[in-house]
Amino acid sequence: MSNQNQNPFKWRHFQADIILLCVRWYLRYSLSYRDLEEMMAERGLNVDHTTIYRWIQHYAPELERRCRLHVKFTTDSWRVDETYIKVKKEWVYLYRAVDSQGNTLDFWLSSIRDGNAAKHFFLKTLSAFHTTEPRVINVDKNAAYPKAFNDLKTVGKIPESCELRQVKYLNNLIEQDHRCIKRLTKPGMGFFSFETAWRTIQGFEVMNMLRKGQLQGVAKGDVGGQVALVAKLFGVAA
């Protein structure tokens, strides 16, 4: 195990619990980095907003990585869709999937929206630790999905018995779920690089999964349990 895994907060100027507090709040609520700077100032802590930005860039993907193996298994009915995120004043595509219960299956940020992007996302979702082999995949009328679906079925990546449905109303569930992620991206007024967006979105998504009760041992609405789990994953006393 690397030293970083043993102590992910080594050489940091602030205590681990303060860093995790800022990371959790930024990824969970619609806050800007300057909002958090002021909130920490109320606690008597002089934390610059650029420091909080660096914490998010470092710890958001790490939080997502540490949570992955603790996610509960999902159902075999998928809802797949993409939404738009602004990066450097340009729109990019956030591919997302939820199951029939509204639980997040997976997500992926892409600069393009075509058959190859859809195929990549299907493969990423199929290989996720917590996803169940799909019985049905619901998508919208985007022509890229049937092509990607058929290509992957031909090579045996998607089960022969799996059905693709292009019925828009069936995807209302995921369109509603998009709103949570879109709401979180607004305070930052867009991202300045693709890498910055992807690192941050990994954190937004995994905190959304935690909020929805998708991690083992923590029920939806159990805020204390959510705080304790994040602390435990990073080896910090809650």
Automatic annotation (TrEMBL):
InterPro entries: DDE_dom, Integrase_cat-core, IS_Transposase, Transpos_IS6. Residues 57-228 form the Integrase catalytic domain. NCBIfam families: transpos_IS6. It comes from Dictyobacter formicarum. This is IS6 family transposase. PROSITE patterns: INTEGRASE. PANTHER family: BLL1675 PROTEIN. The keyword DNA-binding applies. It holds the Pfam family DDE_Tnp_IS240. The lineage of its organism: Bacteria, Bacillati, Chloroflexota, Ktedonobacteria, Ktedonobacterales. Coiled coil: none annotated. Transmembrane segments: none annotated. Keywords: DNA recombination, DNA-binding, Transposition.
